[in-house]
Amino acid sequence: MKFATKLSLLFSGIFLILSFFITEMVVSSSRETLERIIQTQMERRTAEKMDRIDKFFFERDLDTKMMATDSVLRSKKISPDLISARLKELSKNSGSYISLSFFDMSRKRIVDTLGQDAGRVHSLSEYWPEIESGKESAFDMYYSESLRIPVFHFAKVVKNDAGAPLGVLVARVSTGWLDEIAKQTAMPEIKVEIVNRDGLVIYSSYNPGGVLKEHSIYWENIKAEIGRGKVEKSYRLKSPGKEEEIVVYGTGQGYKDFTGNGWTLIAHMPGKAVFAPAIELRNRLLIIMAAGGGFSLLAIVLFARTVSRPLSRLSAAAGKIGRGDLDVRVAVDSNDEVGGLAARINEMAANISTSHKAMEKAKKEAEEATKLKDKFIMLLSHDLKTPLVGMQGMMQLVQDQPDIRPENRRMVELAIQGSKRMLDMIDKLLDVGRIQSGKLHLKSRYCDGAEIIREAVETVGTMASQKGITIRNTVPDKIMVLADPVFLKEVFGNLLSNAIKFSEQGKAVTVKYLPGENMVFAVEDSGVGIRPGDLKKIFSFHEKTTTNGTMGETGTGFGLPLSADIVGALNGKLEARSSPEGGASLLVTLPKPAPKLLIMENHPGSCNELKISLEERGFKVRMTAHALKILESLKEERFDLLVVELSTAKDTGAELLRLVSYDMALEGMPVLEIGEDTRGHATDHANRENMPISSADIAMIVERIYSLLMADNSPQKE
User: Fold this and answer.
1) Which residues pair with 161 in a beta bridge?
2) Measuring CA to CA, which of 266, 271, 479, 501 is 20 to 30 A from 203?
3) Which helix (H) or strand (E) segment is 295 a member of?
4) 235: closest CA among 198, 205, 261, 274?
5) 202 vs 146, 150, 155, 234, 258, CA distance in Å?
6) 3-state secondary structure 167-182
7) Can you give the pLDDT at residue 683?
8) Alpha-carbon span 487 to 683, nearest angstrom
9) What is the DSSP annotation of 223-234?
């Protein structure tokens, strides 16, 4: 992806994210403000409406009380006609009533201003149970038997002057005036209903069919709050299958001496109506953001191209420089950081070009020097070594003459010794040249370090006996190392020769093994020691540190540097230690070998102890019980030894050997057979041996594994 595209996407993303957050913050803030304002208005209007309702009921209650004390109605000798006329007159004075009725105490309707059901006995329903229980008045919303609609009923007992009940005056009030109150709101989306103490709807501005039949769906949420004394509250409500609403309720508290019936007015409004202004604001903001985003995106693209154009030039120039075109220059003339970077790149290209030319010159000089060194090595090998060998042979013939004079024989011996030293120096120079030029490759394999040290001790035996030096070899048998045995023997030979050279007559040189995290072999002497400043120099070809021995022995000075290079090529380390009192210790540190073994067991778990024993010795062991798994493992990874468990009861091990006898994966790999009986499984594999597990313990098997790995024909590790 191009930088201009990335830059455009980055700034566009930042713009979109900022636009989103700004829009959300504005809309969220406006939603909260709108919700708070609307809830406040709804709470205030609900309280005002409930006060008006309580006041209206107070006035109707007071009105019916006054009508119940009318002298005409309280007269004992009043006729139904006079009562009807009086009720019609009272009804005209107050236009709030649908009708006025007068009953005797046996619930028989005497008169009604609408002329309905005169002479009919009312059932013991609506307000009559309260009247017959001894109350002087009753008030509530009932479904009128005569009018067949829900109306408010105000019932008052009419008494004579003596206080005896004469009858009951009933005033009926319609719910039309509540509709007028419900409509008096600034938001037509607000719906209003009134419920009684049980949550039964006694008025609804939107569901008149549910009056006195249904309970409010909001009552369950409200009654608990009313029970805790909260007579008014607003909250959000999300009912199942319905959208979110803002709900406000207010419970009637009565008016003056009218206590009311504990009715609750509930006002609710859809959330989308509440937040419609906020949604509209959000849509306007999105339109504005989209328009601004289009202009911004155009500006971002132009800016990104302006910025990326010089960067593209820088990138192209850097690519050419990387491909070797050091004469390229970046054409950027701006005075900003990009221009400065272009100038630095041009300067860098010029410096690299200069350095490259100097390196080419140095390379040619080095190649010429290498050629001269190679010619020098060829000279040492042919023009010097060959004549020296011939001279040494002729001097040997002279030395063997019986009639040679003693003083001449001594001179011949010195000449022979000098020629041997020169030949030794030439051999070491050849080895040094091969190692440093990378032409000498060590062939590492698993070998017996103890045997290599014994051979090195034998090599310097004559030199030690001439000085009366005793060599103490305390290295235990069977110490497996991963190394080139020829060159490792040369290392220990050099270290022993060096120790003998600087030891006094009759002293001892000790070779020991120090086990630990790595394999450490030490050659120690009690000779003159090494000066502190020479402890590291003695391993350098470039530092002249060689000195004569305790009997004037001379050396080439190449032995220790050559040994250090050989040990380093074996992934080890050669270091020297000495003390002011004398004596020196040369330490050869080699990594512990970790041979990889593949074991096939005939019975699961039968070779677990062998595996544990080998892993404790540093082996890496993989086990499997399937011949095919063995074949897969041999193809995936190179192992140092294959161990196969054979059994008369289960011949999968023998079958495996037949399968892999001619497999290229086993070429040069030792194979050890262990088991109960291997007769009938003869093999011509050069390195295969059978060891019945029933007659050998783990120690014997481990010892045989060591022997097979350290055999002369074991796999080499290049």
Assistant:
1) none
2) 271
3) helix 276-322
4) 274
5) 18, 8, 18, 21, 19
6) EEEEEEECCHHHHHHH
7) 40
8) 35
9) HHHHHTT--EEE
**How far is 593 from 169, CA to CA, in rounded Å?**
119
| pTM attached to this predicted model | 0.46
The 3-state DSSP composition of the chain as helix, strand, coil percent (nearest 5) reads 50, 20, 30
- Return the CATH number of the domain spanning residue range 187-274: 3.30.450.20
Mean pLDDT by 10 residues, the chain (718 residues): 65 73 69 72 80 85 87 81 85 79 91 87 89 89 84 90 89 84 68 88 87 88 83 76 81 80 84 66 70 74 69 71 72 68 74 80 77 64 65 77 80 73 64 59 85 89 87 91 88 88 88 90 88 78 65 68 86 88 89 88 78 89 74 77 69 58 61 61 44 61 87 65
Fold match between domain 69-174 and domain 187-274: yes
Transcribe 416-474 into DSSP letters: HHHHHHHHHHHHHHHHHHHHHHT-----EEEEEHHHHHHHHHHHTHHHHHHTTPEEEE-
Q: Determine phi and psi for 535, rounding to 5 degrees.
A: -60, -35
Do 650 and 624 touch, CB atoms closer than 8 A?
A: no
How is the chain split into domains, by residue range? 69-174, 187-274, 326-439, 441-590, 596-717
What letter does residue 531 receive in the DSSP assignment?
A: -
Fold exhibited by the domain 69-174: Beta-Lactamase (3.30.450)
β 688-692/671-675 pair status: parallel
Task: Domain 441-590: state its class.
Answer: alpha beta
For 465, the token pair is 């006996």
Encoded amino acid at 393, one letter = G
Hey, what CATH class is 596-717 in? alpha beta
Torsion over CA: 568, 572, 573, 574 (sign):
negative
Please compute, for residue 690, the number of CA atoms within 13 A of its CA located in the half-sphere on the CB side.
18
Q: 3-state DSSP call for residue 370?
A: helix
